[in-house]
Amino acid sequence: MFHIEPSSPQHLKVGMAGENIACKYLEQKNYRIIERNFRRKWGEIDIICLKVNDKSSLWNRISSNIFNVLRKTNNKLQLNTNDFNVPQGTELNKLVFVEVKTLKNGSGLNPEDNLTESKKKKLIRTCELYVSDNPAYTEIEWQIDAILIKIDHNLKKASVRHIESAIY
User: pLDDT tens per residue, the chain (168 residues)?
Assistant: First the structure.
């Protein structure tokens, strides 16, 4: 998390508040935050995270099958991945790049109004660079989501809208 000076411009404070809200939202949805504010001279990625699809039910199936295999082998650790019955192509992880757009209520705009075509192109290019620079993620599927936030400072509330695969 980055520190914003009290003397910082209001738009930076609103943007950082939005990113903090987005991170809390993603963590509640079982995303694992890897990095924030990845910057290159032509663009920035607000949040980079991992999404584990159907984690609990997949883990329940795998652990149940491990238990059954261990019982069959008299608790000797002789496991074959074919014994787990994990469906072919099961998606365990997905790399998710998140663009956060935050506005205060009463601005007359919607957060998505600030998601221009130019910004989308820069974002795609920056995501491609991130994947190519991080060999651990070259074989994993990725997507770019948008989290759109409206903050009402008077009520101290925020509305959050998450659009998966919003940019392609």
Answer: 444 556 667 778 888 999 999 999 999 999 999 999 999 988 999 999 999 765 555 555 554 555 555 555 554 444 444 444 444 444 558 999 999 999 887 777 788 887 889 999 999 999 999 999 999 898 899 999 999 999 987 778 999 999 999 988
DSSP alpha helices (H): ranges in the chain?
A: 10-28, 55-72, 117-133
pTM to 2 decimal places: 0.72
Q: What is the CATH number of the domain that holds 145?
A: 3.40.1350.10
Domain of 159? Answer: 12-53+94-167
Q: How far apart are the first and last CA of the chain?
A: 27
Of 158, 29, 27, whose CA–CA distance to 102 is shortest? Answer: 158
SS3 24: helix
